[in-house]
Each structure stands twice: as structure tokens, then as C-alpha cells.
Design a protein that fits this description.
The chain is mostly helical. The chain is 42% helix and 9% strand. A two-stranded antiparallel ribbon has the order 1-2.
């Protein structure tokens, strides 16, 4: 499991236990469906790429951009365990590149849900990102760290590769969109009948509360 950086962004090496991957935080969050309350980001989409898509929230309403600045992108990658050793600041150009990739993955996800063909431009963008060298493991001071010559590009390569793997796998049939907040996620539940972004804390729980109130109101009306 990865740990947070011990100080500022200039000391942004993420230390992991031997054998852990650069997706360590995702293995602890988005694959199990739990949120980390200490983070301003949510990792409950069941896929690194879809968690990245959901960094733009409330798509069914007015929209909520959680990656507004280069620092936000740096923080998201750090929370996701994808920052690697990234002493240099994220640039405005890298922020634009990341957002463009995110939206291409989002549009392709909608195509899967709707049974439509992918747009050629979106596929080309994701393919290009996946071709870039990803973060690679290195042993430093008996700890595993992940490094890259271009850390942001490498992190986006990991996310693009995850998206391509998801779209080409049987799990593509389990890509869903929450009927309330429009969050995109992959249903990893055993029965494969998950409808909501989060049954315990999110839209699913609110739906249960509404239905419970309606039932009580109906019972009181018949009494």
C-alpha cells in the first residue's frame, strides 16, 4: 500500500511495500467501493480510468470540476498513487492534456453504455496516451518507488491503458452510469446488478431513504 508524501511536492516519492503496484491506492479504494474521507477525491468507480473520469462530478446536473488547476491534477495523481517521483510542477499544458484524455475516456464509456461505436478521434487519443512509457518500479533504500522521465505523461499512460483494457474486456458489459448523479462506474459486484454510484453513502442510500419515506407516508395515509 502506498503512503502519502512526507512533506511538500518537492519530496513527492510515494513509498510502497515490496510487490505493490503504482495502483496501490486504487486497489485499496475503487476496487472495493470505499471512499477515503481524508481525500477530496472519490475512488469508487471500480477502475482507475473511470475514477479519473469521475474527477468531473455531477455530470447529470451543473457539473463539478475537481481538477481545476495543475495543483489539483498533482493532488489527484498523488491520491491515486500515480504521482511517482514528480519533483517538477504540473504544467498548464499537462492539465489540458489530462482533461482531454479524461473526456475521451468518458465519451467512450457512454458509447459502451449506449451500444454505440466509439468516435475515431477519441480512440486515437487514448491509444496515443497509452503508447507513452508508463511509471516504472525502482528499488530505493529498500523501498519500491515508481519513476518516469515525464511523470504526468507516464501516469496518463497508465490510465489510458486501463481504459483500453476495460473497453476490450468482458467487464465492458458492466460499465454503468448512476441514474441520479450520472457518475460512470464498472459494476464489480458478484450479481452484477449494481445501479448506483454508492449504495452505502451516495445516491443509492438517498434513493432508499426516499422510498422509505414514501412507504411510511402511504401507511400513515391508509391508517
Amino acid at each position: 500500500m502506498s503512503t502519502r508524501p512526507s512533506s511538500s511536492r518537492d519530496a513527492s516519492s510515494y513509498t510502497r511495500q515490496p510487490g505493490a503496484t503504482c495502483l496501490g491506492n486504487f486497489l485499496d479504494t475503487c476496487y472495493t467501493g470505499y471512499m477515503t474521507s481524508a481525500s477530496k477525491f472519490e475512488f469508487i468507480a471500480g477502475s482507475p480510468a473511470l475514477c479519473f473520469v469521475d474527477s468531473h462530478g455531477s455530470r447529470g446536473g451543473g457539473g463539478k470540476e475537481r481538477i481545476e488547476t495543475p495543483q489539483d491534477l498533482f493532488d489527484w495523481l498523488g491520491s491515486a498513487g500515480l504521482a511517482g517521483e514528480c519533483p517538477q510542477p504540473v504544467t498548464q499544458a499537462e492539465l489540458g492534456q489530462a482533461r482531454n484524455l479524461r473526456e475521451a475516456i468518458y465519451r467512450c464509456s457512454l458509447c459502451v453504455i449506449r451500444g454505440q461505436d466509439f468516435a475515431a478521434g477519441d480512440v486515437a487519443m487514448i491509444n496515443r496516451a497509452a503508447l507513452c512509457p508508463p511509471l516504472r518500479p525502482q528499488l530505493k533504500h529498500n523501498a519500491l518507488v515508481h519513476v518516469a522521465g515525464r511523470p504526468v505523461e507516464a501516469a496518463l499512460s497508465v490510465l489510458a491503458a486501463d481504459a483500453l483494457g476495460l473497453f476490450a474486456s468482458p467487464l465492458r458489459g458492466r460499465i454503468r452510469q448512476c441514474p441520479q448523479c450520472a457518475m460512470i462506474f464498472v459494476d464489480r459486484s458478484r450479481p452484477g446488478r449494481r445501479r448506483w454510484c454508492s449504495s452505502a453513502q451516495g445516491c443509492g442510500n438517498r434513493d432508499k431513504v426516499r422510498n422509505s419515506r414514501k412507504r411510511r407516508a402511504g401507511e400513515e395515509g391508509r391508517a
